[in-house]
Structure formats: C-alpha cells, structure tokens
Amino acid sequence: MNTTETNTTLDMNKKSIYSLQLDELKSWLTENDEKPFRAEQIFDWLYKKRITAFEDMSNVAKGLRDKISEHFQLTTLNTAIQQTSADGTIKFLFELHDGYSIETVLMRHDYGNSVCVTTQVGCRIGCTFCASTLGGLKRHLEAGEIVAQVVKVQQTLDETNERVDSVVIMGIGEPFDNYDNMLSFLKIINHEKALNIGARHITVSTSGIVPKIYQFADEQTQINFAISLHAPNTELRSRLMPINKAYKLDDLMKAVRYYIDKTGRRISFEYGLFGGVNDSIEHAEELASLLKGIKCHVNLIPVNYVPERDYVRTPREKIFAFEKTLKNLGINVTIRREQGSDIDAACGQLRAKERKEETR
C-alpha cells in the first residue's frame, strides 16, 4: 500500500526533541529560565499522548512552546510506502527530513508486537548477502530519528489499542557503528516516563565491531545482545562478512566471552542459512565446536531472497537437519519463524527497490 503524508518543513540544524534524555531536557529548561518539572509534562505529551505538533501541548505555556519550537524539531517521519503482509507484519519505508529513506518493521508474535528499527541510512559493513549495504553508508541517524520510528509505529498501533511490546535493533545499518546515538536511543525508550519498554524486551545486534562489544559489556545493561555470525570459521565468515577481515573470528569470540563473564548474560548468535554455502552438516558440527561451553542461543534464519544478491534459501529438510545436528551436540537452537514473505521482507529490500538512487 502506498501512502502520502504532508511533510512538515524541518530545520535540519535543529536537534530532535526525541534525542533528549529527561535529565537533559530538565537542564535545558533550567538554562532557559523555565521550571525543570515541565520536562515530565513534555515527556508525557511526547511519549504517552504522542503528539504530532508542539502546539498540541495544551497545558504548556505558549511562550515555552515557542522556545521549544525555536530550538528543537519534533521529528516526523513521512510514510512513503506501507506494506502489510498476510501474517500481520507491516513494513514501513519512511522518508526523513533530508529526503533519505529508512525501513522499520512491525512484527506480530504470540508474545506481543515487536518493532525492528534502523540506525543508519545505508551501511558500510558490506555483508555480501544484505540489501542494506547497497550504495554504502549515507549518514548516521540521530537518536531521535531512531526513537521516532518506535513512536510512529506506536501511533499506528494506537488505532487498534495495541502497544509496542519489544524492540530489536536489527534494521538497516550497523548499530555499533552509530554507538552513541544507539545507546541514547536505548535509554530513552527504556525510561519509565518515555516509552517504558523493559530492557529485557530490547535486543541489539552487531556484525562484530569488537571494541564496541567490550564497551557495551561495560555498560552493564539488561538489554539482550546478539551477534550476526553466519559462518563457523574465519575463512567463510570473511567471504560473507568483510568485517571479519578487520575483526577476526577468534577476536570476536574473545569479546563474546568477555561480555558473558562481565554481564552473566546469554548471547544470541544469528546464523543465516544460505543454500550450498554455510548449511551443511559439517558446518553445523563446526559451529557447535566453535560455541562449545559458551552461554548462548543460536537463531537459525532461513534467508529471504534478495534479487540484488546471489544467495538462495536452504531447502527445508536441510534446515531441520542443521538444527537437529546442533541440538544433538548440545547447542540451544531455534529456527526463526518466517514473517512477511509476501512483502519486501528482507532488510533493506524495500528501500533498494523503491529508492534506487540511494542504493546504487
């Protein structure tokens, strides 16, 4: 379904108000001769009532509304395209204030509604199976632009009295390549005065920027952590994921062990199955050996076909054989439930199809 919205003219030099932590907003109010308690009122308008214009904040004095409007923008995302799958999955192609586009996905599960957010316009990691990296990295998203994705989906769910129950940072881009904005986003959506999404209902995934894994471990959050692995040895991983040339598999696994020792938390490994590439029984055995003794869970992902890439999906019987081999070797493993197969479900696929000028 194509949708068209009126695009509010935004000053690209203004910071998104969604980028502010509550304490930062209180400090800004104090510095501008306003009462800091107004910050909680403003957060209530932003995240509970989910206003679409500053003038909607009816219990905030006009003078303060004007000050806020002068210094900040209320980040709005234009819905360029909205696709709805038969299984209830909704994929949004949002247009940003500078004309670039990003993808956000609403996934419906038995345990609630999950939103997959994007952290960058494009990606420079260069994974050979991913449409997100087509055209490279255009820019990082501001924290507020990531927050706005969740707000926008929540506004959609408001129409049916539903809520966003969980968030995964697995959309376009490498979250750890935009680390500070990603971390600010996490704190905002987790805050009880904002969207109040529990830390254990948030998952962040990385392709393996090793120094940032150590840094993230030291944050000591309760947020779930996933590694995009996709290969059981360093040679194959380098073919699939060029980042492995910068951060070797051995170094990645050392960082994984540090994370587990530091936090006591389990790690998830995302393993996409590509037909004839990484899906043999020998690969499963090698993967089990690599992960032996590590507190982890493996999420097997039957890949979505991407026209711009050459990989094909592993046959169903081979997926089950791969899973069974891991289980027999003591690895905790599940197969990700397929969603959105009748729409442009693969990460970056809708943007690649509709915004070719961005992804050349």
Automatic annotation (TrEMBL):
This enzyme's EC code(s): 2.1.1.192
Co-factor requirement: [4Fe-4S] cluster
Places the protein is found: Cytoplasm
PROSITE patterns named in the record: RADICAL_SAM (PS51918)
Positions that bind S-adenosyl-L-methionine: G173, E174, S205, S228, L229, H230, N304
Gene3D superfamilies to which the protein is assigned, alphabetical: 1.10.150.530, Aldolase class I (3.20.20.70)
Domain of life: Bacteria
Record gene name: rlmN
Recorded GO MF terms: 4 iron, 4 sulfur cluster binding; metal ion binding; rRNA (adenine(2503)-C2-)-methyltransferase activity; rRNA binding; tRNA (adenine(37)-C2)-methyltransferase activity; tRNA binding
Reactions that this protein is recorded to catalyse: adenosine(37) in tRNA + 2 reduced [2Fe-2S]-[ferredoxin] + 2 S-adenosyl-L-methionine = 2-methyladenosine(37) in tRNA + 5'-deoxyadenosine + L-methionine + 2 oxidized [2Fe-2S]-[ferredoxin] + S-adenosyl-L-homocysteine; adenosine(2503) in 23S rRNA + 2 reduced [2Fe-2S]-[ferredoxin] + 2 S-adenosyl-L-methionine = 2-methyladenosine(2503) in 23S rRNA + 5'-deoxyadenosine + L-methionine + 2 oxidized [2Fe-2S]-[ferredoxin] + S-adenosyl-L-homocysteine
Protein name as it appears in the record: Probable dual-specificity RNA methyltransferase RlmN
Broad class of the protein's primary localization: cytoplasm
Keywords from the UniProt entry: 4Fe-4S, Cytoplasm, Disulfide bond, Iron, Iron-sulfur, Metal-binding, Methyltransferase, rRNA processing, S-adenosyl-L-methionine, Transferase, tRNA processing
Annotated active site: E103 (proton acceptor), C347 (s-methylcysteine intermediate)
Family as reported in the entry's similarity comment: Belongs to the radical SAM superfamily. RlmN family.
One CC-aspect GO term: cytoplasm
